[in-house]
Amino acid sequence: MLDIRNLSIRYQGATAVDNLDLTLGEQEILTVVGPTGCGKTSVLRAVAGLIQPSAGEIRIGDLVIDAKRVVPPEKRSVGLVFQDFALFPHLSVEDNIGFRLRDRAPANRWIDQLGLETHRRAMPDTLSGGQKQRVALARALAHAPALLLLDEPLASLDATLKAQLRWDIRQALKSAAMPAIWVTHDQTEALSVGDRMAVMRDGRLEQVGQPDACFRRPASRFVARFLGDAAFVPGRLDGHSARTELGDVPVDQTVDAIGPIAHDDAVDVMMRPDDLSLSVSDNGSATVDWCRYEGETRLYGVRLDSGAELRVRTNHEDDFAEGTRVDMRVCAGHALTAYPAQAVSPTDA
């Protein structure tokens, strides 16, 4: 449906996107995530036709766009949903959604499906942020584009609204059988709504894959840290496990810049807060440095006697005071990811 090859985008000599390859399948939702300035919105704007590629090719169905072949936005059958809603302030909800539609049946379908019936004749300035975003989504879906692009659609909403609306949007896209690219800076959003996710850094793709694979088996230390808390515990590879100061732990070998890891190589094993457990023990090998209460859970900063610092997330009922000596164990029910110890770079450390 969408095929991007060797895409580069430059602004006044500065490279925003560098030689990027990306595909989108029929009915697939792809979330694109990365830090501010990584190039994710530039990719979206190039697909939409708001900027022209500096190099490479974009294929949308039978359309081919490159640096020399220009296809205007209105000829691409691409819908856009922005974080600022972009509603017509002088039109009611139903007129916003049905704008330029000869047949209002699609507008009525999405008014009903997105829970906007009671707001049909309301003006945009009387709506909440969540309602405005539903109107913007309904308008895009009612025009039945071949592809929908969402640029930070929930960025201006509060946390409670985000949690519900992201699922409503995903359900609407699946109901419409419409492929979509969803750009966000919110890791939780990207992990939860995408069929696949793409992680960008400095104009390049660091990893593309199913969300759980990107989270559990990050292709780089950058991806590991960007998608959640991650610490790296030194060890030695021993078959399908690694010997560490927390004991022998099962690992998935990962390939880093210097190549595959060999037996008895020094490795760093990625451990997330949910991979670890704590228990009070005077003979333990770690000390609690701090605690953050999160409601349903508590997050602890724990220092091993070796000096290594890790974070551990526990049930909210567990309460370890600062300075408590504890025994820390790996409780993950899956293999952890190991990286070559010597592969640390200043930007990944």
Low confidence ranges: 343-347
Provide the structure class.
alpha+beta
Strand order of the largest sheet: 6-7-8-3-9-10
Helix fraction, binned, reads: 10-25%
CATH architecture assignment name of the largest domain: 3-Layer(aba) Sandwich
- In one word, what is the shape? globular
Number of helices: 8
Output the CATH homologous superfamily of the largest domain.
P-loop containing nucleotide triphosphate hydrolases
Describe the protein.
With 349 residues, this protein is α+β, with helices and mostly antiparallel strands. Helices cover 21% and strands 36% of the residues. The protein is built from eight helices and 20 strands. A hairpin with a 2-residue loop joins strand 11 and strand 12.
List the helices and strands and how they pair.
Layout: E1 2-11, E2 14-24, E3 29-33, H1 40-48, E4 55-60, E5 63-66, E6 78-82, H2 93-97, H3 105-113, H4 129-142, E7 147-151, H5 159-176, E8 180-184, H6 187-193, E9 196-201, E10 204-209, H7 211-216, H8 221-226, E11 231-238, E12 241-244, E13 247-253, E14 266-271, E15 276-280, E16 286-293, E17 297-304, E18 309-315, E19 325-330, E20 336-340
Parallel strand pairs: 3-8, 3-9, 6-7, 7-8, 13-20
Antiparallel strand pairs: 1-2, 1-4, 4-5, 9-10, 11-12, 11-14, 12-13, 14-20, 15-19, 16-17, 16-19, 17-18
